[in-house]
Every structure is written in structure tokens, then in C-alpha cells.
Amino acid sequence: MNKSVFIxxxxxxxxxxxxxxxxxxxxxxxxxTPPDNYITYNPxxxxxxxIMEEAVQYQIQLLSSGANGDYLFVDSLISVNNxxxxxxxxxxxxxxxxxxxxxxxxxxxxNLVVDTSLDLSQTILxxxxxxxxxxxxxxxxxxxxxxxxxxxxxxxxxxxxxxxCIDTMTNTNYLSYSGxxxxxxxxxxxxxNDLSSTLKSESSFFVDNVIPSRRTHSxxxxxxxxxxxxxxxxxxxxxxxxxxxxxxxxxYRDSLNANTIYSVRTSIREHQLVLNSGLYFWRIKAVDxxxxxxxxxxxxxxxxxxxx
Length: 308
Description:
mainly beta; Immunoglobulin-like; 3 domains
């Protein structure tokens, strides 16, 4: 094949994407639900629209209308023709446009008003702290959940192995407690006003009160002289039965441990490091997933004297 003909064919093929991609710029997405100017008492809203065959994805935006103008708080690119979200009371604009790799339509938009008033029956509170599956220590724990202006009182219940250890009402969206013993816990919150209650929001967490054991040095030996710039630090610890742990290695140039020249966090009990000639001090501290901390290990010293 003639070289110039080949180049023309190659350029033509590169432009095929634009040629074969459907031009949807003159089209508009047909919005289905909720209809325009819809007023609802349900904070959980499902937005849907007709599928456009030439589209690859849809861009949905939600704007909150207020005295200071419209505030964009959702801007998502999705591959399906529906979107679900929990909304606070207020006035909203929702709009959708279709896109493919080359073209996009104009936005189709509808207005929506959410007036939940005092109806809490479909409301779900978000449990913020502790998060589902968290491992924490029981010395002090602040339970936190989402706030709702239509709720007068929140009912907090915490169970351990089926037994209630907390069962209380509060008008705030947080409560602090301490003294949790080792073990698994589940907790839930229900919001109430004079007419209705929210759905139950549930979660669970694990309390670890086991303090990591103090680490014991192995290498380099205390008061030893190392004749190599590459130093292997190694230490050990007896087995504990708390949550997963990591160790922090600290290296100093003074015996008061005031001048830290290097630190590293590791899940294994050794670390290789290149150092210059001189006198060094080192120690280890362990921390577990719950935040429990061990004592510092002893401070050992060693010197590096590289023979030339």
C-alpha cells in the first residue's frame, strides 16, 4: 500500500470515534419522578428518568434553593437512570443530562419541595461515632449521631451480649460514657417528637482495653559497636490478646531521647537502616488498633565505627 494512502486511512480511523458516536447535544433527558413542583413529606427521594439509548452516563445535580441563591450539593456521574438520597426539609432543583464520550445534552430540570414537618416515620439517623466495626478502648467514648431539627428527644441504647448497659434519653445528638469492659457491643438510636419516631439506626463496635506489652530489644546489643553502616534493629514482645498492634522505632543522638533523628512505624519487629558513624540510642513503643499504648522499652545505645 502506498505510504500516503496508509496515513490517510490511519487518520480516518482515528476520527471514526467522533463519526460513529451519536450526537445527542440537541436531545433532552425525560425526567420521570418525582414530577415537577412536587411537594413531599418523605425525606428519602428516588429520582428517575427515561433511558436514552445513545447515552453512556448521566450527570445528576441537586441544588438547594435558599435566600442566598442555589447551592450545589450533589454532582454525580452515574451509569443508571435512578438516584436515591435522603434530604433535609427544603426547596430543591434536580436536573439531569445525558453524556457519551463526545456529546452531552442540556440539563432537564424539575423543582422539588421536601416538607417533612413532624413526620419522622421514614427518617434514618446516621450513626457517626463509633463507626460500624470500630475497635476502641473503653476509657472514654462519645456516641455521636446526625441531628434533626424536628426531633425533641433521642433514645440511645447500648447492649453487650444482649444485656443493656445504657438505656437513656437525651435532647442532644451526642452522649459521653466511660468504663466499658472488654467485649463486643451493639448500639442504636431512635429519634422522637410528639407525633412520630424515626426508624431504628443500628451499629456495633468492639472494646479493647488490653495494653500492649513492653517491647524487649534484641539487636543491636546494648553498648555494642557495629562495624557496618547498615544496622538491623530487632525486638520482641510476649503475646497479648487485644487488637492488632504496630510498633514505633525511635532513634536518638542523645541519652535523654530529646533529639530524635529517625522514627518509623512497622507491623513487624525488625527494621534495617543505614546510619553514619557515631553514637546512637534507640527505643520502641507499641500502639494497638484501639489506641492503647505500651510503655517505652528500655533505651539501648550502640556505636557505629566503620573500618576503612
